[in-house]
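Standup notes
- DV: blocked on the single-chain target, sequence here:
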Amino acid sequence: MSVWNGVLRPAAPMGRKIGYARVSTVDQNLDRQIDALTNIECDEVFSDHGVSGKKHSRPGLDKAMATLRKNDMLIVYKLDRLGRSVTHLSQLLEHFEQNNIHFCSLTEGLDTSTSGGKMIYHIFAAVSQFHRDLIYENTMNGLEAARKRGRVGGRKFILSDDDVARAFVAICEGRQTCKEAAKVLGVSRVTLQRAFHRYGYNWQLYN
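- DV (later): unblocked, structure below
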């Protein structure tokens, strides 16, 4: 591996090098990122211009993800250009590891095609699991507190405490929208929203 203009130049993996660039506002430009990705000879470069990293769906990233195949490498100029949160980054890196896709962030010097770089997968996987467990534990504690306050009782509801907790965790992590979570549970979106309301959870903060 070598360095170009102060950033990492990853060794070419067995597959293709796919670049991804993003800026959050329309008055920013992608030139620096595109130049870096072009100079390390990416086979294709996808981008999102004026798209916040907090957006659930980003057209450029969605296309890049759809393009990636086994042994390819996704390359970004900076780590924060890819994930909208640590949890989102963790989910993407888990997906890459499971599908034998390499990842490289130029300015941070992260390259998972190297022996040292592979540790990144394990670190982010551990962070993701910790975050998931923490949200689930806090949610279950909230459900128990709601019961003690008399907010939950009477007739039997369609969704169990565990159903509500796991759906809320999935929405918090950005893995599902409220509509998608409801579909998985076999209920309507309104039913799931009512369940969140019973326990005092504002799902709209995360959708």
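- Follow-up: The chain has two domains: 2-117, 124-205.
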